[in-house]
C-alpha cells in the first residue's frame, strides 16, 4: 500500500506553504484562483482529501462509518443499511449515509465530502468508480469495504455476490424448465453495473444453449411496479410468443405479474416471470414470484464486521475478499 500523503506533501508538490495549501483546500477568499486550482488539482491527482476536523481533533477520526449507496428509493439498499446498523449497534460507531444516484461524478463528490470528516470506516456499494474516487479510496485513512459485487477489481476489502454468476444461474434455471423464448426487462441500465452483469450472465447461459434474448427492454429511470407493468405490456405486445420474462428487480416483476393478471394471462402457463433480490414486497402476492436472494442484509453485516476488525487490529488487515452465494427461489411463476 502506498504511503498516505499529508497536507505538507500536497503543499510541497504545489510549491506553497502548508498554511496556503490548507487555506486553498478550504476555499479561503484570500487565496488566488490560480493557486487554489493548482492545489486542488494536485490533491485530486494524488487522492488526497482535506481533513475537516479542526484543532486538537485533527489527527483523530470521528465515530462515524460512511455508507455510500446509489439510491434509497428501492427496497434493496435499506436492507444493507439495516445490516450495517445492527452490527455497529454494540460499538461506538454509527452509520452516516451518502446517496449517489448511480452517478460516478456524484459518487466522487459524496465520498470526498464524507472522507473529509475522517470517518472510522467507509462502505461503498459497487466496484466501478472513476479514477479520482479510486485514488481517494486507496489513500483513505480508514478501512474501506466495497459491497454488493465481487465481479471486478476491489480497492481494498470487498464482500458481495457475483452478479454475473447470479444471472447465469437464473438463465440455467429458466432453460432447465424448458423455456426458450426469453425476454429481459431492466431499469437503471447501463448505470446500474450490477444489473447489467446479471443481464450478461443470463445472456451467456442462453448463448451456451444456442439461444439469445427475443428482446431486451431497458428503462433509465427507477424501478417501480408501474414501470414493470408498462414495459411488460409493451414487450408482450411486440412479442406475444415470449414464454419467459426475466427482470432486473423484483419491483419490476411485480408490475409484470399485475399486467398478466389484469390481461387474463396465466402465469407461468402463458408466460413465466422471474425477478431478483427476494424483496419483502413479494410477500402476500397471489403467486410466489420466482426470485433470487442476494444476501443483502448479510452483506451489510459482514461489511460492518470488517470495519470493526480492521479498526481494532494493530496493523491494517490484508485485503478481505468474500463472495457470498445467492439462492434462487422458483416460486410459482417459473
TrEMBL record:
Keywords: DNA-binding, Transcription, Transcription regulation. InterPro entries: HTH_LacI (IPR000843), Lambda_DNA-bd_dom_sf (IPR010982), Peripla_BP/Lac1_sug-bd_dom (IPR001761), Peripla_BP_I (IPR028082). The keyword Transcription applies. The keyword Nucleus does not apply. Pfam families: LacI, Peripla_BP_1. It comes from the Bacteria. Residues 7-59 form the HTH lacI-type domain. GO terms for molecular function: DNA-binding transcription factor activity; transcription cis-regulatory region binding. This is LacI family DNA-binding transcriptional regulator. It comes from Tritonibacter litoralis. The lineage of its organism: Bacteria, Pseudomonadati, Pseudomonadota, Alphaproteobacteria, Rhodobacterales.
